[in-house]
Predict the structure.
Amino acid sequence: MSNHILLSLSYLAVFFLAQHQVKKWILSQANKKQVSEVRSRLIIQLISYLMFFVTLSVMAVSLGLGYQEVSLFVSSAFAVLGVALFAQWSILSNITAGVLIFFVFPYRIGDRIRIVEKDEDLTGVIVEISIFHVLIKRDVGDLMTYPNSLMLQKAVIKLSPQVDASTAVETLEDKNSSQFE
C-alpha cells in the first residue's frame, strides 16, 4: 500500500514539475512574441489539462488497474469527446488553429494586415488574438471577428502602418530638404 502512495506522489511530483517547466517555456515564448497574457493563460490551461489526463492514465495503469480497463476508459472518453466536437467541428478546428497561431503566427497585435478575399476588402489592424478568433479593426472603423481556422487557410499580407496624408507630405519634405543640405 505504501508503495502505491509513493508511486502516486512521484507521478504527481513529476506532473507538477513538468507543468511548471511547460508554463515557464510558454510564458517565455509569449513574452518573446508579445502575446497577450489572456492567450498565454488559455494555452497553459489547455496543455495542463492534457498533461493531467495523461498523468492520471499512466498512474492508473501503474497502480494496478488493468491496461484494458484504462485504455477502454481513455478510448471511450476520446470517442465521446470526438462525437461532441464533430458536431461542432468549427470549434475544434478553431481551438487547434488558436494553438498553432500562438506558436507560429508571424503577425502580432497592432500589425496592419490584409486578408486576401475576393469578395471584400479585409484590411485592418489586429486588436486581439484569442483561442477562437482574431479581432481586426478595419480601416472603415468596424471591428471584425475572423475565425482562427480561416486565418490559417487564407493568404494574409502584412502591410506597412497606415500613414495619413499630412504626415506623409511632412516626411517627404523632410527627406527632400535633408538631401539638398
Notes: The longest helix spans residues 2-33. The two ends are 88 Å apart (CA to CA).
